[in-house]
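Example for reference:
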Amino acid sequence: MIHKTRRRIFLPVLFLLFFFLMISQGEAAAKYKRTIEKYKVPDVTLVNQDGKRINLRTFLDSDRPVILDFIYGTCTTICPVLSIGYSHFQKKLGPDVDKVRLVSISIDPDNDTPQVMKEYMQRYNALEGWDFLTGKREDIIQVMKAFDAYVVNKMNHYPLTILRAPEDEEWIRINELLATSDLMREYKLLLKK
């Protein structure tokens, strides 16, 4: 029993350590596949980490580039890696941090309360411009389906980053983990649109 518990803890920690070292050393991740998609953002109201009600369609229809992912606050595998990536990305932006909108949408609205989300973001040193959104289960499902990210069981989620240039109809979809350098490259490509 003890060995199973150690293995359950050890493997995610080992995975995070490996990815963190890769990001820290500035190495690019393996090549990734990117696709261009068109999504219709549903007209739903979600809640951010401060308890503020947010109309998602209006929020994402921004004059800033948008980078979006789907996570949950108690995840111990993929979500921390995605969030470390967002945190490093914000640090690399420096004074330009307010020129991009980072959005994490909960896939576990039953447990991700604004308080849980706020604590999660503090853990990753989130700066202004990064919002973690939750809402009613039916609204979250609608959003996940709209972005072709729906999973029945949160344990089956996968790394997904979706980016869009300001006021653009096309979204860039990346179904893999990105190193910070790759995320920065994708962001810079958005600025050239």
